[in-house]
Design a protein that fits this description.
The complex is a heterodimer of chains A (359) and B (307).
Chain A: H1 2-9, H2 11-36, H3 38-63, H4 72-85, E1 86-87, E2 92-93, H5 96-115, H6 123-143, E3 157-158, E4 164-165, E5 168-169, E6 174-176, E7 179-181, H7 183-206, H8 209-219, H9 221-226, H10 231-257, E8 259-260, H11 267-281, H12 285-314, H13 321-339, H14 348-356
Chain B: H1 2-32, H2 39-57, H3 64-91, H4 100-121, E1 126-127, E2 136-139, E3 142-145, H5 146-168, H6 170-180, H7 182-187, H8 192-218, E4 220-221, H9 225-240, H10 245-269, H11 279-293
Antiparallel strand pairs in B: 1-4, 2-3
Helix pairs in contact in B: 1-5, 1-8, 1-9, 1-10, 2-3, 2-4, 2-8, 2-9, 3-8, 5-6, 5-8, 6-8, 9-10, 9-11, 10-11
The chains are: A mainly alpha (359), B mainly alpha (307).
């Protein structure tokens, strides 16, 4: 990405680019909303949530090199935190500002709980344990409706409070000086702000002492230890940080959907987020963002395209659109990885390694 | 006591199936260091093909056991071909790629196979026709069906056969050499590409048999059945020590026993707080516990810290 390197030296161009991207991001919901309708704006809102998730998982998988296949559990923890503390389930209605940090903290604690017993495991052993952990959380959410009803079981929790900012609910159109801001747009700005905050934090982390320690562990744990890195604490920190981002995204998800159920936190979701990270370009923040956007939008494109295109070409629907959509998605995963094994937008370091032949 | 014996029998049957599938995972892992995420789908395809052939033969008047054997005989080559194709398309081009790349293509293959199956066989559950003779045996006041006896026997035979193949034949020696060090094996004249292909083919034939067994035992097959089965079998392979054949067998049987005993007794153990729907939690919990104390599985060799 030489052009981006150039931006780093040319201050004026950098400012211009930033302003341009800023304006684009600011008007995007209006463009998308009027051009493609509210369905697509909703999908974009989800894409932002997935970007947060992918960036969180990127810390664990991309930076620290710990293969986590149960990441969605932290999303679930965040979502259920919000759902339990702001819904008729227990009659609690705490504000978002109390729940989101709490959700992040609890998810972080769960991250450490997962990380602590698995410190000695590497590679694929870690993958299966994290996967099992994710399933355990989901099964508990699914069954904790008896003997004491906590999570309401498979029915999930509905009627969750919408996110309120300064007493203004984001679920209804907002009146701003005579100008109405629809709910989806409001959520877009909130999610964008938090996604940008997470991007900022991860960029700062990447170049920090901690970030370099993560990369060192990824590259060679023994060498990292020999260099005086406390690998135990640094690995736990990676789990906790990644998990807390997932917790925040989960809380937002619950408020946005007004409904959570264990179904949203299946293993397939973990796999999806992992695909975003790896397909986008592990360890590279712009790549991971790209992966998050693509893998949210692509299945939806197929969903909306699979039926009508068949109708237009064959005059009738020959193949089940739902199956066809996932089929195309699977093929896309394979093709992209075959042609770009290091991801769509790999970090400079990984690209160099890859060219050098080191796997 | 009879419940205990019954759960042991159920566990052994389930465990034999897990063990067969786990062998497929562990063979591929042993040779390539890769989780073949699509292996569960191969099991599903085996079950579906066998079922389709059996349903076609239903009116033919052949004895039930013969129909079942023809179904199985049809499923094995289809699965072998699938396994071969998976390796060629999704894994071979990525032999030297970063480690997670083949994992993603494996997930892609898994999604593709699942949805192809859904297009071919639909979303419905398919019932296994009652063609197999239903003989029940009494063992210590518990019952074991003829099908279950056959499953345990066939699985045991296949495991013995595989062990002999790997330990006693030229092909087996080539496989072990490739697992040890592919490039040195190649220098010694082993056609490693062929060995890797064969590993996938052998693993897939075990998967076909396992798929057939699952659908015969539970009288049902479904396009989605491969996923959870593959997950359990992979867990079993890791429990035993992935890459190790004996480990996969042990892990499979053990996981089957843990699951069925867990399902039977978890309520008593926790004073009724957790019911039998926590059986998966139990299985994963045992897995985590085992790995905490033996990070490379029950019989896995201690992997040398890579310098």
């Amino acid at each position: 990405m030489m052009r981006f390197e150039a931006l780093r030296h040319d201050k004026r161009a950098a400012i211009a680019a930033t302003v341009l991207i800023g304006i684009l991001l600011a008007v995007a919901p209006f463009l998308i909303g009027s051009a493609a309708g509210s369905t697509w704006l909703r999908i974009v809102d989800f894409a932002l949530l997935y970007i947060m998730l992918a960036l969180g998982l990127n810390i664990v998988v991309g930076f620290a090199g710990l293969l986590d296949m149960g990441y969605i559990a932290f999303y679930a923890v965040g979502a259920y935190m919000y759902a339990l503390l702001a819904s008729p389930q227990f009659g609690l209605h705490l504000p978002m500002w109390a729940i989101l940090p709490a959700g992040a903290a609890v998810a972080g604690i769960f991250g450490v709980l997962l990380g602590a017993p698995t410190l000695r495991l590497r590679g694929d052993y870690l993958a299966i344990v994290t996967l099992g952990f994710g399933e355990i959380i989901r099964i508990f959410l699914n069954n904790l409706n008896a003997p004491v009803n906590i999570t309401n079981g498979p029915q999930g929790i509905s009627g969750i409070d919408p996110i309120r900012i300064g007493g203004v609910s984001l679920s209804k159109p907002i009146d701003l000086f005579g100008f109405t801001l629809p709910s989806l747009h409001a959520y877009y700005y909130l999610f964008l702000a938090l996604a940008l905050a997470i991007v900022f934090v991860t960029i700062r982390l990447e170049n920090s002492r901690i970030g370099r320690a993560w990369v060192a562990i990824r590259e060679d744990e023994i060498a990292a230890k020999a260099c005086g890195i406390n690998t135990r604490n640094i690995k736990l920190l990676a789990f906790a940080m990644g998990a807390s981002f997932g917790g925040v995204a989960g809380g937002l998800f619950a408020g946005f959907q007004a409904f959570v159920s264990p179904e949203s936190f299946s293993l397939m979701e973990s796999v999806m987020v992992l695909c975003m990270v790896v397909l986008g370009g592990m360890g590279n923040i712009p790549g991971v963002i790209l992966g998050g956007i693509l893998l949210t939008i692509l299945p939806e494109l197929f969903r909306h395209g699979a039926g009508p295109v068949q109708q237009a070409v064959f005059g009738k629907i020959l193949l089940d659109p739902e199956a066809l959509r996932m089929l195309l998605f699977g093929l896309a995963l394979i093709v992209v990885m075959l042609y770009r094994p290091a991801g769509l937008w790999p970090s400079t370091r990984r690209r160099r390694e890859f060219k050098g032949g080191a796997a | 006591m009879d419940i205990f014996i019954q759960q042991i029998i159920n566990g052994l049957v389930l465990g034999s199936i897990y063990a067969l599938v786990a062998l497929g995972y562990t063979m591929v892992y042993g040779i390539m260091g890769l989780i073949n995420f699509a292996h569960g789908e191969v099991v599903m395809i085996g079950a579906m093909v066998a079922l389709t052939v059996i349903n076609l033969l239903l009116g033919s008047g052949l004895p039930g056991v013969v129909m079942a054997l023809i179904g199985l005989a049809a499923a094995v080559p289809v699965c072998m071909a699938t396994g071969f194709a998976i390796e060629r398309i999704a894994y071979r081009p990525l032999r030297n790629a970063p480690k997670l790349a083949p994992l993603i293509t494996a997930i892609g293959v898994s999604i593709v196979l699942q949805n192809v199956a859904m297009l071919v066989w639909g979303r419905n559950y398919h019932a296994f026709p009652p063609i197999l003779p239903s003989v029940d045996f009494e063992v210590f006041e518990a019952t074991i069906t003829g099908v279950q006896v056959a499953i345990i026997a066939i699985a045991a035979l296949m495991m013995i056969g595989l062990t002999l193949l790997v330990q006693r034949t030229r092909l087996g020696r080539a496989m072990r050499a490739t697992a040890e060090n592919p490039s040195i094996a190649q220098l010694m004249g082993v056609d490693t590409n062929r060995i890797i292909s064969l590993t996938f083919v052998i693993g897939s034939s075990l998967a076909a048999v396992a798929g057939f067994m699952v659908s015969a035992n539970y009288s049902i097959a479904h396009y989605y059945m491969g996923f959870i089965l593959g997950l359990k079998a992979f867990t079993a392979a890791v429990l035993g020590g992935i890459g190790n054949l004996a480990g996969a067998m042990l892990g499979g049987i053990l996981l089957g026993l843990i699951e069925s005993l867990g399902a039977g007794y978890i309520g008593d153990l926790t004073g009724g707080f957790l019911g039998s729907h926590y059986q998966d939690v139990f299985a994963f919990f045992v897995l985590i516990l085992v790995l905490v104390f033996r990070p490379s599985g029950l019989v896995g060799e201690k992997v040398a810290e890579r310098a």
